[in-house]
């Protein structure tokens, strides 16, 4: 009794800390505020992804990019594998909340069981993600600079290389009509490159010498810039098929200068960064779950008299699931 | 109570209970119901992904289902629905900034 009184007294000072904040323990409140800040971080990343995707005239089609299931199908099974991953994560969220519920009933054995299930679910998800990354990297999806990142000289050289490369390819077809094509960049195109921003319409010539106005999406959307529509998906060198906004497959080789593989690289950057950051959360989540699970097995929370640590790690785990719900929709479905 | 003073400091949750304050409790039937709803919503997303052509409306449907699933996870799995109002609002109200951010990004892309 005397200890309790002295404990209360020691907590009256402004810097001594109090037992409750907003009606819950400080630990739980700060877990919530951490998750709130993490929600802002993920929002920034995902809206950044949305920005790049929205201003891009073409984008890799997720049903083509994500169409392989390990062992079962190398291709031709769009979204199946990610469906399995999503199910694993939702199921592990279920076992997590059941562990919290068992903790409220002080049923230590049930908490043990559900913590083990949750850890297994987390490890399964991580394994799936490792497979998926490995597969996509082997397919050629990678991190890299996109046109906007290059310095002036590099950008000019790049554009001229593409124009030249295009000319060579056409000559190889020994098509007299194409051989005559003018692949020089127009003065306006050079002006655009000098500006290093695509804020003005650019006139480029294609193989037939026809002029195309290319607008940056920041001004007029993709007005005046259309890649040739094709009926069958055409894969570029990264194994990615492109679609326009209307959902038609387009030929990415339509004209090289207009479409370096910038969108694919940008897709790779955003995909690996955001799913990587989420995967890092899953990874740390599994580590924390294992620590709490060991405590449950040691009976730490029986001694302590409550299972709030399980509840707190549960909040983190559900947050990881919550972020995946958004990543799943934004990267795989849309 | 435990004799360890450290535990007593960390015991606010159950102390709150003892003082008649609201403590979120979960029940199994509700948990399973929410899980089944989340599972079905994901299944519906797959149905739309395969049965419907790519369009603005499909994207709107996906986003609506996503927000609905997210709300389910936050409200039931993370217990916010059964949480004290002051904690719930201090978590939920700042999310308005995310709406603001999304609005800004949409405006930016319109140029």
Q: What is the topological layout?
A:
The complex is a heterodimer of chains A (334) and B (111).
Chain A: H1 2-10, E1 20-21, E2 24-25, H2 26-55, E3 59-60, H3 62-65, H4 80-104, H5 108-138, H6 152-172, H7 176-179, H8 187-195, E4 202-205, E5 211-214, H9 217-220, E6 242-243, E7 249-250, H10 262-298, H11 300-304, H12 308-333
Antiparallel strand pairs in A: 1-2, 3-6, 4-5, 6-7
Chain B: H1 5-9, H2 12-18, H3 28-51, H4 56-77, H5 85-92, H6 96-110
Walk me through what this model shows.
The complex is a heterodimer of chains A (334) and B (111). By secondary structure, chain A is mainly α. Chain A has a domain at 21-141 and 266-333: Cytochrome c oxidase, subunit III, four-helix bundle (Four Helix Bundle (Hemerythrin (Met), subunit A)), CATH 1.20.120.80. Helix content of chain A is 61%, strand content 5%. Chain A contains 12 helices and 7 strands. Chain A has helices spanning 2-10, 26-55, 62-65, 80-104, 108-138, 152-172, 176-179, 187-195, 217-220, 262-298, 300-304, 308-333, and strands spanning 20-21, 24-25, 59-60, 202-205, 211-214, 242-243, 249-250. In chain A, strand 6 (242-243) and strand 7 form a beta hairpin. In chain A, helix 4 (80-104) packs antiparallel against helix 12, helix 5 (108-138) runs antiparallel to helix 10 and helix 10 (262-298) runs antiparallel to helix 12 (308-333). The longest helix of chain A has 37 residues, at 262-298. By secondary structure, chain B is mainly alpha-helical. The model of chain B is unreliable at 1-13 and 18-22 (pLDDT under 50). Chain B has a domain at 28-82. Helix content of chain B is 73%, strand content 0%. Chain B has helices spanning 5-9, 12-18, 28-51, 56-77, 85-92, 96-110.
> Rg of chain A to the nearest angstrom?
27 Å
How are helices and strands ordered from N to C of chain B?
Answer: HHHHHH
Along the chain, the helix and strand elements of chain A come as HEEHEHHHHHHEEHEEHHH
Q: Give average pLDDT of chain B, whole number.
A: 81
Poorly predicted regions of chain A are: 1-9, 147-153, 170-186, 188-209, 213-226, 254-261
CATH second-level architecture of the domain at 21-141 and 266-333 in chain A? Up-down Bundle
For the record, the CATH class of the domain at 21-141 and 266-333 in chain A is Mainly Alpha
Number of helices of chain A: 12
Tell me the CATH topology of the domain at 21-141 and 266-333 in chain A.
Four Helix Bundle (Hemerythrin (Met), subunit A)
Low-pLDDT runs of 5+ residues of chain B are 1-13, 18-22
- Overall geometric form of chain A: elongated
């Amino acid at each position: 009794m005397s200890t309790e009184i002295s404990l209360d007294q020691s907590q009256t000072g402004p810097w001594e800390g109090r037992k409750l904040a907003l009606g819950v323990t400080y630990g739980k409140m700060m877990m919530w505020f951490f998750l709130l800040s993490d929600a802002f971080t993920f929002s920034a990343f995902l809206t950044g992804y949305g920005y790049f995707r929205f201003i891009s005239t073409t984008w890799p089609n997720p049903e083509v990019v994500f169409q392989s299931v390990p062992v079962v199908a190398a291709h031709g099974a769009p979204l199946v594998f990610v469906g399995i991953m999503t199910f694993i994560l939702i199921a592990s969220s279920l076992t997590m909340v059941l562990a919290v519920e068992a903790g409220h009933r002080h049923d230590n054995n049930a908490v043990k069981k559900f913590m083990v299930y949750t850890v297994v679910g987390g490890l399964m998800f991580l394994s799936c993600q490792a497979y998926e990354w490995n597969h996509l990297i082997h397919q050629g999806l990678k991190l890299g600079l996109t046109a906007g990142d290059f310095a002036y000289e590099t950008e000019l050289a790049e554009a001229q290389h593409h124009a030249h490369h295009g000319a060579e390819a056409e000559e190889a077809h020994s098509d007299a009509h194409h051989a005559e094509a003018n692949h020089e960049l127009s003065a306006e195109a050079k002006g655009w490159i000098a500006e290093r921003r695509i804020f003005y319409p650019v006139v480029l010539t294609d193989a037939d010498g026809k002029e195309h106005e290319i607008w940056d999406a920041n001004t007029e959307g993709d007005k005046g810039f259309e890649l040739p529509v094709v009926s069958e998906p055409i894969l570029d060198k990264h194994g990615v098929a492109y679609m326009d906004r209307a959902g038609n497959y387009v030929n990415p080789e339509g004209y090289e200068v207009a479409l370096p593989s910038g969108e694919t690289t940008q897709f790779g950057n955003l995909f690996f960064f955001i799913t990587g950051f989420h995967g890092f959360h899953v990874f740390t989540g599994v580590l924390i779950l294992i620590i709490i699970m060991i405590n449950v097995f040691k009976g730490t929370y029986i001694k302590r008299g409550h299972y709030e640590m399980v509840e707190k790690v549960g909040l983190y785990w559900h947050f990881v699931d919550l972020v995946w719900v958004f990543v799943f929709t934004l990267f795989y479905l849309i | 109570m435990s004799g360890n003073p450290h535990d007593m400091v960390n015991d606010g949750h159950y102390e709150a209970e003892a003082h008649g304050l609201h403590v979120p409790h979960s029940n199994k039937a509700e948990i399973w119901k929410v899980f089944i709803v989340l599972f079905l919503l994901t299944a519906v997303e797959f149905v739309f992904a395969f049965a419907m052509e790519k369009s603005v409306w499909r994207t709107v449907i996906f986003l609506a289902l996503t927000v609905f699933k997210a709300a389910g996870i936050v409200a039931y799995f993370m217990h916010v629905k059964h949480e004290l109002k002051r904690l719930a609002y201090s978590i939920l109200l700042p999310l308005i900034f995310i709406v603001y951010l999304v609005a800004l990004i949409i405006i930016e892309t319109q140029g």
